[in-house]
Every structure is written in structure tokens, then in C-alpha cells.
Amino acid sequence: MSFFKTLLAAGFGGQGVMVLGQLVAYTGIEEGRHVTWIPSYGPEMRGGTANCGVVLSDDEIGSPVVDQADVLVVMNQPSLTKFIERLKPGGVLVFNSDLVEFDGSRDDIKLVGLPASEIAKELGSDRITNIVILGAVVESSGIV
Asked: Number of structural domains, the chain?
């Protein structure tokens, strides 16, 4: 069976959501996979909503749109509310538990919550929160 995985990442602008998605995409390219990365921005310059979809496949990709994700990364509460129904049953939800509270509305997914903001601060900068989350994505999902 060939490899095909999808990821949605969402948060406020400035939280590094796009960089996280790009890093997953670049890693997929390094692994020799076909890859798409599609960003979506809110109208605000900074602090508005931002999300991106990544598709990684051994085969050519028919559509870059991620309707149902294998992995959902949320960096804030509004993103969880907006995107939780787009996570496939059996998918992985990775979230920053410093900013997001999961309400238990789904019992058919794997939950990976970690205090990413706190960990990033302990490492020296809250600007690397997205990289802390990325580590959890890689470890828990097998996407790359």
C-alpha cells in the first residue's frame, strides 16, 4: 500500500503555523514524496487566523485540498472549534494545552496535548512553540 497522509495546521497569525506546515512539506520532499502545501490567511496582517494543508504521497496528488486530515494541529481554541470535524476518525489531534482545552467531543481520535508554550519558554524562547509542537507531530503521527 502506498503512503498518503494529510495534515491541517491552524492558529493565529504569528504562531508559526505556516512554518510548521512548510517544514512537514520540505521533509516529505526530502523523503522523495509528492507534496503539496496550501496556505490560507485571514485578512489581518498579524494575529488573525491562519491555516495550511499539507498532502504527502508516494503517488501523484490529484487535489491539494485537505478536506479530511490524518493529523490536525491546533495552536488556539478557535482553530479547534473550526477544524475538529475535519479530522478523520482514527486521526491524531496535536494541540498546545497551554492555549487549547479539548472538550472530549470526539472519542474516535488520538489526543496529543502538550504545554508547548511552557516548554518553548523553558528552552529559551516562546517563538519556537511551533517547533515544539512539530516534534509532537512527528513522534505521534508518522507523517514524516
From this structure: 1
What cell was used for 75?
Answer: 495552536
For residues 97 and 117, what is the distance between their CA atoms, to the nearest angstrom? Answer: 8
The per-residue pLDDT for range 37-68, each reduced to its tens digit, is 999 987 776 667 899 999 999 999 999 999 99
Query: For residue 117, what are the domain limits?
Result: 4-141
Burial class, 105, CB count within 10 angstroms (exposed 0-12 / middle 13-18 / buried 19+): exposed
Predicted TM-score (pTM) of the model is 0.95
Q: Across the beta sheet with 49-57, what order do the strands follow? A: 34-41, 49-57, 4-12, 69-74, 87-96, 110-114
CATH number at residue 127: 3.40.920.10
Q: How far apart are CA 106 and CA 108, in angstroms?
A: 6
For residue 84, the one-letter residue type is I
